[in-house]
Structures are given as structure tokens and as C-alpha cells.
Write a structure and sequence with these properties.
Layout lengths: L2 E5 L2 E3 L5 E8 L8 E6 L5 E7 L6 E3 L7 E6 L4 E6 L8 E6 L11 E5 L2
Parallel strand pairs: 2-10
Antiparallel strand pairs: 1-3, 3-8, 4-5, 4-9, 5-6, 7-8, 9-10
Length: 115
């Protein structure tokens, strides 16, 4: 059974940084693409980033390019999202997921960007 547990969210001022983590189990993490997705009230899930199994390829939605960076530690079954220069519009619940649309995702961690 796939389990994904996110942590690291919180309240941060605009321009600040946060690092999200996700610990995965129940599937072969080291051979799987994994994703970050997010959801705001009244909106559907939106894709944020993808990372290839060996971490040698990443991609990001346009609005976070240059500010967010994803990485992984396959020895620890852990996915990371480093978020810098945060904006109010980044406020959302962030999930790690095994697919780009977030059908299989964790419980999420709230990120609030506000002064």
C-alpha cells in the first residue's frame, strides 16, 4: 500500500523560504517518477514539479521556475521541495504524489505565504 507523508509546511512571509519533505513507502521509490502537486480552496489539484527516478531530470510549472527546486534521496525514500522567494499565490496545500495529477497522494502540508 502506497504511503506518502509530507512535512515542513507553515506560515512564511513573502520572499521567504520553506523546505518540504515527503517520506514514501509501499512502492519502489527508487525506480519511480515522483511529483509535487498543490491545491488551493476552490481550485483543483495543480502540478508543481516532477523528478525522474535517479534525480537526473526535473521539470516545473512556469510560475515556480527559478524559485522552487526538487530533489530526492533514494536511500531514504525521501522527496524534497525547496521553495524560495515565496509569493502569496504559492499559498496552498502541497502534496507529494506518484502521478502528475495527484490521484495517489499523501495527506498534504499547508503552506501559507502572508505578511
Amino acid at each position: 500500500q502506497v504511503q506518502l507523508v509530507e512535512s515542513g509546511g507553515g506560515l512564511v512571509q513573502p520572499g521567504g523560504s520553506l523546505t518540504l519533505s515527503c517520506v514514501a513507502s509501499g512502492f519502489t521509490f527508487g525506480t519511480s517518477w515522483v511529483y509535487w502537486v498543490r491545491q488551493t480552496p476552490g481550485k483543483g489539484i495543480e502540478w508543481v514539479s516532477s523528478i525522474a527516478p535517479r534525480g537526473d531530470y526535473t521539470s516545473y510549472r512556469d510560475s515556480v521556475k527559478g524559485r522552487f527546486s526538487t530533489s530526492r534521496d533514494n536511500a531514504k525514500n525521501t522527496l524534497i521541495l525547496q521553495m524560495n522567494s515565496l509569493k502569496a499565490e504559492d499559498t496552498a496545500v502541497y502534496y507529494c504524489a506518484t502521478d502528475r495529477v495527484g490521484r495517489t497522494r499523501g495527506g498534504g502540508t499547508q503552506v501559507t505565504v502572508s505578511s
